[in-house]
Amino acid sequence: MAIDNQTTKVITGKVRLSYTHIFEPQSIDGGDEKYSTAILIPKTDKETLRKIKAAVDAAKELGKSKWGGKIPANCKTPLRDGDEERPDDEAYAGHYFLNATSKNKPGIAKPVGKGTDGKTKFQEITDSTEVYSGCYAKVSLNFFPFDAKGNRGVAVGLNNVVKVQDGEFLGGRSSVNEEFADEDFDIDMDGDEEDFLN
């Protein structure tokens, strides 16, 4: 089984997260609560797209045992074209996208340098405001076959998320810094913080 798991696993290049619910599970359309995020993959990232296609193909092969020995003609695949399916959303322009979910909370971290062994060291992210819709990450995914109520295809499991860069918030939310940078606040900036109760 380890061989199959390797062929269906993908670690992406730098992608952008959207509709991100990775700290608390959410119910989508009244279904089971799951951790989830949409992943926007630049169309220029040929290597990540190649790995995803190979993993989808491997998952289809695994699915034959569930699907009566053959890949169905209407087999659903997870990768979608942002230019075609989200023409009014500029964040999706020039990207493919897919949705990844997990019943278990994914690992969430950021790189903090190299260890003496030359390998990257990571720090867990526990602040839910640090990873959001619009930031950039590298993501570990697993592609697997499903057969649910007559729908057959390949779905995407969410394993781990490593944040690599901040980005503009998606979904209409702006940051505190953006919204209030030009506002005047009647505060003493000398560091002499008085007790506001006095």
At the fourth level of CATH, the homologous superfamily is Nucleic acid-binding proteins
Number of strands: 9
Main sheet, how many strands, which sense, barrel?
A: 9 strands, mixed
Total helix count?
Answer: 4
The top level CATH class name: Mainly Beta
Model description:
- With 198 residues, the chain is an alpha+beta fold.
- The chain has a single domain (2-169), classed as Nucleic acid-binding proteins (OB fold (Dihydrolipoamide Acetyltransferase, E2P), Beta Barrel), CATH 2.40.50.
- Helix content is 17%, strand content 39%.
- Strands 1, 2, 3, 4, 5, 6, 7, 8 and 9 form a 9-stranded mixed β-sheet that branches.
- The protein is globular.
- The termini are far apart.
Task: Spell out the blueprint of helices and strands.
Elements lengths: L1 H6 L1 E3 L3 E13 L5 E10 L3 H18 L16 E2 H4 L9 E8 L4 E8 L5 E5 L11 E13 L2 E15 L10 H5 L18
Parallel strand pairs: 6-9
Antiparallel strand pairs: 1-8, 2-3, 2-8, 3-5, 4-5, 6-7, 8-9
Features:
single chain; 198 residues; alpha+beta; OB fold (Dihydrolipoamide Acetyltransferase, E2P); nine-stranded mixed sheet; 9 strands; globular; disordered C terminus; Enc34_ssDNA-bd; NA-bd_OB-fold; Phage-like protein
Short description:
The chain has a single domain, classed as OB fold (Dihydrolipoamide Acetyltransferase, E2P) (Beta Barrel). β8 and β9 form a beta hairpin.
